[in-house]
Amino acid sequence: MTTLRLASLRTALLLTVLTVASLIGLGPAMAAGPPVSLGEVPVLTAPNAYGPGIWHHAKQGKTWYGSYRTFPDTSAYCIDAGKKSPLAKYFKGAEAEQVTSARTAWALHEYADSKSKDVQAALSAMARLDKALPHDHKVPPQKPGDLGKKFDSAAKQHSTILAKAKKYAGPYTLDISLEPVLQMPVLEPYAVAESSSSPDSETPDSDTPEPEPDTDKGKILGTPTDEATLTISLTSASGAQVPDVPITLQAAGAKDVPTTLTTGDEAVTTTLQASAPGTLSVTASAKVAPQTVRVFEPTSGTRVQRVITPDSPAEVADKATLELSSQPKVTTEISDQTPTPGDAVTDEFTVSGLIGDHTVTVEHTLWQTAARPTLGTKNDDARAIGSVTSKKVGNGTHTSDEISVPEDFRGWLYFTETIAGDTATKEWKGIHGQPRETGFVPWTPQADTEAVLEGTSTHDEVAVTGLHPGSEAVLTVTTYHVEDEPEQSAKPDGEELSVQDFTVVADADGHAEVSTEAIDMPVGWVTYVTEIAGSDVNAAWTSDWGVPAETVHRPPEEKPSTPPAPPEKPSTPPESPAPPEQPTTPPAPPEQPEQPAAPKKPQTPPVAPVAETPAAPGPPAELPRTGATGNGMLIGMGIVLVGLGSTVLLLTGRSRDKE
Question: Which domain holds residue 436?
Answer without folding.
Answer: 329-441
